[in-house]
Each structure stands twice: as structure tokens, then as C-alpha cells.
């Protein structure tokens, strides 16, 4: 039975497209919904799937031809009887490669190792470490490598048991979401030398550079590059397997045109270094996380009108309450009672009275948050991260302590997801754990406030006309003066101080 492959609907007001690439050639076996070709319109790229399993017959519209909606692209002979067996076997092999495939005499099918989803708004990562090398046997779900994004580290597990036959993205290479990292041979180690690895590597080389010989650029893109007089190496392809599309050429031309106007300030020039000093230096490339931290901190200084106000709090009552109930608290709730839950509760109460500290600027609007997603800054070997405790204002002391302990452990282990570090409305940073006596924290954009905690230190204080030794802590509130006035900032800090010096106010919502 012959089936026609036709041009699908291309979108509103789009009536024609150019055949950019055929992924199959006449005589190839295809599965239902397997991609046959790619069409390019003036707005989008459209992939055309196979309507059924079978064998591709005649290709009516070749690459570079312009076709209208519902035009005939190719014919397909549907599989029946014995003809269906190759497609079925191919589907089975792709779905579940097993050791029995290797013993059938035909060798194991190559299994690609792909870059997983990296999170919202994250499109690329750097390969930081490979845990396996070519030729190593691996079990399914065993960790192959680790990727580093701007915010988190992502471990990549093996999609199947087998042998790692080729690494396509070495340590330090930048890869895109959905790109290919390596090729595995599923099943026994004897299948590691399969001949399919070569074409796979060639195709992925084209993916990473966009200029590989195995990938053809869109005809319209070739024409645009020729007219503009630019080389393909100057354009980053965003199409399938790194193919350069027409819009990629336009983007490259626009970037080149705006480059002189938006060129960044020259990097700081190092002073003269003697040969002896140079021999004793060590140069280490900044991690993507450290680069992002640097950029965000500088952006915060360049954007917000950051001001800091200070106060000090007598921790006597909080420490006495904690010492009195910490054993019972841990026995009942299974988590230690720390100071962070007191500070989180105090901040949530103060934010209700001074809502602008819990707000953010969006263009010419001020967005007030009727909830508190509390960011808790945590230092890790990789750098500073800020996991977010959602709806902290609705949590009990025990729930807050459990959330902080869990987020802190995940941060140290590098297991935090993107979602766990997004959406915070206010942040607490505890520099006191490192011995800091006083500091001015920097805002975590787009938030308008951050509270800095510091070291608890015994100091002589005047209490009711008498000098007494008290455990004191300096507090620092950095805020965005564009939205928070001095009165609001001082009021917030005073309310936090009052709640901590008399914790009963927290219970009575005062």
C-alpha cells in the first residue's frame, strides 16, 4: 500500500516553504512518526514525520525546492508481512537495547548519550568531568559525566548497560541542551568496536560546530551568507544537528553590526610579571558558576541603588529559649533547633509590616508579594548558592529547620535543581558562621532586600542603668533605595530586633 507524504499546515498566513533537508533517502526503512525531512519557512522550521512504518519510495520535492501547503513531498510503501520486520526490529532495538542483541551475530546498536534538560532559560553547559573513559563497561544509570551550568551541576547517567565507545564532548567543552555527549554500545564489551560510531561522531562534530561536512545548511541560509559575504564559521547554527538557518545568518549580521556600539569595557590589564613570579603562579579557568556569580553581583551594583542600614540585637532571650527546648525539639521533630528559624520567622513578621522590602521593580511597576519565598544563602565548594524555601511565612519552626537542613545538604552535594533556586522574594545571609563581625551584603536581584547575620559576641551593654555582658549580634539590611525608603528599612530592622529580643512577640504576631 502506497502512502503519500504531504506538506503539513505551516501556520497562519504561511503558504509555502523550502525543503531544507531530507533525513532519509529512497529505499530506507522508516518507523511511524520518524522524521523524514525538514521544511523551512520565513518564520519557523517544520519537521515532517512519517505517516506510517514502511519504506521511503520516491522523493518528489528535493532539497532547495519550494513547496506549497499540502503539496506532495514523497511516497511511502507501507510495511506488510515480512516487509514490516525491519522496522519492528529497529523500533525494538531503539526502545530497549539488550545483551541478546549482541549475541545475535549482528552486533549491538549504538546508543547515544545526550545532554539532559538543563532547566528553565538554561541552554548550554560545560562538561566538567568524565567519570568513565572510552572502552569502560558501564551499568545502566551509572554516572558517566558531570555538566556544569551557570547555576547547578548536572550528572548524566548511562541510558543503558554496555560499553562507552566514544566521547564526543571532552572536559571543558561547551554543549547545548539536547546535544550528543558520547556514544555507547549496548550489551557486551565485544560490541565496542562497532562501525556505527564513526558516522555518529561525524554527525556530532557537526552538531557542536555547526560546520561539519555531514550537515547541510539551509539553502536560504547559504544564499544569505553568500549575499552578505560572510563565512559559515562566523554563524552559530540553531537548526537540527547545528544546521545554520536563515534567521541564524540574520542574527549574526545584527550582532556584528551592534558589536562596536555595545562592546564591553576592556578587561583589567595585569601588571608586569617577572619570569620568576610567573613560574610560581597557577592559572585556573573560572567555573561557569563563579562567572555567573560575578556577573550577577556586578549587575546588582549597576542596576539597584543599594544602601545598607545597621542595628544590633541582644540574643539573650533567643539563646535561653533555644537551650531550654532544643533537646525536646530535636526528639519530637528529628531536627536541631537553630537560630535560622527564629530569624526567618522574625523576617516574615517584619515583611508583613514593611511590604516594600518584599517587593520588586518590574519596569515602571512595583510588584508586591503577598507571600514570602525565603532565600537562604549557602556557601559551597563551588561557590555561593541561594536555595529558596517557599511559603516560609506559612511554616512552623520545625518545618523551617527541616527545609533549611535539607536544602543546605543538597547545596553542599551539588544536587540543587534550578527550580529550587528561583523565585525568592527576600534573602538571609549568615556570615557569622565564618566569623564575620559586620558586613554589607549585596542584593540578590530582582529582590529588594537582604538581611546579613553576623557573629554572636559577648559585649558590655547598659541594661537598666547597669553594665552587663550580653551576647550581641550586628544585623545589616541592604536594600534597593529605588523602592525602599530609609524609614521602611529602619522600621524593618527594628521589628526584626524586637522579635528576636522578645520571641514571645512571634507567638502573638506582634
Describe this structure in words.
The protein has 510 residues and is α+β, with helices and mostly antiparallel strands. Among the domains are: 1-95, RNA polymerase II/Efflux pump adaptor protein, barrel-sandwich hybrid domain (OB fold (Dihydrolipoamide Acetyltransferase, E2P), Beta Barrel); 290-507, 2-Layer Sandwich (Chloramphenicol Acetyltransferase). It has 12 helices and 27 strands. Strands 17, 20, 23, 24, 25, 26 and 27 form a 7-stranded mixed β-sheet that branches. Helix 4 packs parallel to helix 5 (246-262), helix 9 crosses helix 10 (397-412) and helix 9 crosses helix 11 (486-501). The termini are far apart. Belongs to the 2-oxoacid dehydrogenase family. InterPro entries: 2-oxoacid_dehydrogenase, 2-oxoacid_DH_actylTfrase, Biotin_lipoyl, CAT-like_dom_sf, E3-bd_dom_sf, PSBD, Single_hybrid_motif, SucB.
Shape: elongated
Radius of gyration over all CA atoms, rounded: 30 Å
Structural category is: alpha+beta
Whole-number average pLDDT? 79
Q: Which residues form runs of ≥5 with pLDDT under 50?
A: 81-106, 189-213
Helix content: 25-40%
Per the CATH scheme, the topology name of the domain at 290-507 is Chloramphenicol Acetyltransferase
Any idea what the CATH superfamily of the domain at 290-507 is called? Chloramphenicol acetyltransferase-like domain
Strand content: 25-35%
Count of individual helical segments: 12
Q: Give the CATH level 1 class of the domain at 290-507.
A: Alpha Beta
User: What is the level-2 CATH architecture name of the domain at 290-507?
Assistant: 2-Layer Sandwich
**DSSP strand count:** 27
Q: N-to-C terminal Cα separation, in Å?
A: 79 Å
Largest sheet: 7 strands, mixed
Domain Lipoyl-binding: 2-77, 110-185
Cofactor: (R)-lipoate
Function: E2 component of the 2-oxoglutarate dehydrogenase (OGDH) complex which catalyzes the second step in the conversion of 2-oxoglutarate to succinyl-CoA and CO(2).
Catalytic activity: N(6)-[(R)-dihydrolipoyl]-L-lysyl-[protein] + succinyl-CoA = N(6)-[(R)-S(8)-succinyldihydrolipoyl]-L-lysyl-[protein] + CoA
Amino acid at each position: 500500500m502506497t502512502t503519500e507524504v504531504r506538506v503539513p499546515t505551516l501556520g497562519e498566513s504561511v503558504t509555502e516553504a523550502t525543503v531544507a533537508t531530507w533525513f532519509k533517502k529512497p529505499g530506507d526503512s522508516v518507523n511511524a512518526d520518524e522524521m523524514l525531512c525538514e521544511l523551512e519557512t520565513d518564520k519557523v522550521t517544520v519537521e515532517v514525520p512519517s505517516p506510517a512504518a514502511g519504506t521511503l519510495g520516491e522523493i518528489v520535492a528535493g532539497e532547495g525546492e519550494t513547496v506549497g501547503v499540502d503539496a506532495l513531498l514523497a511516497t511511502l510503501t507501507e510495511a506488510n508481512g515480512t516487509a514490516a520486520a525491519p522496522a519492528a526490529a529497529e523500533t525494538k532495538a531503539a526502545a530497549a537495547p539488550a545483551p541478546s542483541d549482541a549475541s545475535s551475530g549482528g552486533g549491538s546498536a549504538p546508543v547515544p548519550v545526550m545532554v539532559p534538560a538543563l532547566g528553565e532559560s538554561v541552554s548550554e553547559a560545560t562538561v566538567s568531568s568524565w567519570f568513565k573513559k572510552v572502552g569502560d563497561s558501564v551499568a545502566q544509570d551509572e554516572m558517566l559525566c558531570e555538566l556544569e551550568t551557570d547555576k547547578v551541576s548536572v550528572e548524566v547517567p548511562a541510558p543503558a548497560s554496555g560499553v562507552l565507545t566514544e566521547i564526543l564532548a571532552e572536559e571543558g567543552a561547551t554543549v547545548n541542551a539536547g546535544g550528543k555527549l558520547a556514544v555507547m554500545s549496548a550489551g557486551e564489551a565485544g560490541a565496542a568496536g562497532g562501525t556505527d560510531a564513526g558516522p555518529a561522531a561525524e554527525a556530532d562534530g557537526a552538531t557542536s560546530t555547526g560546520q561539519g561536512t555531514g550537515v547541510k545548511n539551509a539553502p536560504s541560509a547559504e544564499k544569505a551568507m553568500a549575499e552578505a559575504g560572510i563565512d559559515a564559521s562566523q554563524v552559530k547554527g540553531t537548526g537540527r544537528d547545528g544546521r545554520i538557518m536563515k534567521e541564524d545568518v540574520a542574527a549574526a549580521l545584527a550582532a556584528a553590526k551592534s558589536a562596536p556600539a555595545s562592546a564591553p569595557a576592556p578587561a583589567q590589564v595585569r601588571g608586569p610579571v617577572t619570569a620568576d613570579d610567573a613560574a610560581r603562579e597557577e592559572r585556573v579557568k573560572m567555573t561557569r558558576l563563579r562567572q555567573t556569580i560575578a556577573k550577577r553581583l556586578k549587575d546588582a551594583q549597576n542596576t539597584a541603588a543599594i544602601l545598607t542600614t545597621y542595628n544590633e540585637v541582644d540574643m539573650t532571650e533567643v539563646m535561653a529559649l533555644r537551650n531550654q527546648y532544643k533537646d525536646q525539639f530535636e526528639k519530637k521533630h528529628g531536627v536541631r533547633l537553630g537560630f535560622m528559624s527564629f530569624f526567618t520567622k522574625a523576617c516574615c513578621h517584619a515583611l508583613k509590616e514593611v511590604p516594600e522590602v518584599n517587593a520588586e521593580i518590574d519596569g515602571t511597576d512595583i510588584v508586591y508579594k503577598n507571600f514570602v519565598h525565603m532565600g537562604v544563602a549557602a556557601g559551597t565548594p563551588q561557590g555561593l548558592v541561594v536555595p529558596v524555601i517557599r511559603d516560609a511565612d506559612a511554616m512552623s519552626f520545625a518545618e523551617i529547620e527541616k527545609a533549611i537542613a535539607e536544602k543546605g545538604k543538597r547545596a553542599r552535594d551539588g544536587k540543587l535543581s534550578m527550580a529550587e533556586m528561583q523565585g525568592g522574594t527576600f534573602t538571609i545571609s549568615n556570615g557569622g558562621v565564618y566569623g564575620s563581625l559586620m558586613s554589607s551584603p549585596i542584593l540578590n536581584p530582582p529582590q529588594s532586600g537582604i538581611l546579613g547575620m553576623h557573629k554572636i559576641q559577648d559585649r558590655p551593654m547598659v541594661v537598666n542603668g547597669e553594665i552587663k555582658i550580653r551576647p550581641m549580634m550586628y544585623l545589616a539590611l541592604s536594600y534597593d533605595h529605588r523602592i525602599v525608603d530609609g524609614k521602611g528599612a529602619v522600621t524593618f530592622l527594628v521589628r526584626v530586633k524586637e522579635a528576636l529580643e522578645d520571641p514571645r512577640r512571634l507567638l502573638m504576631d506582634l
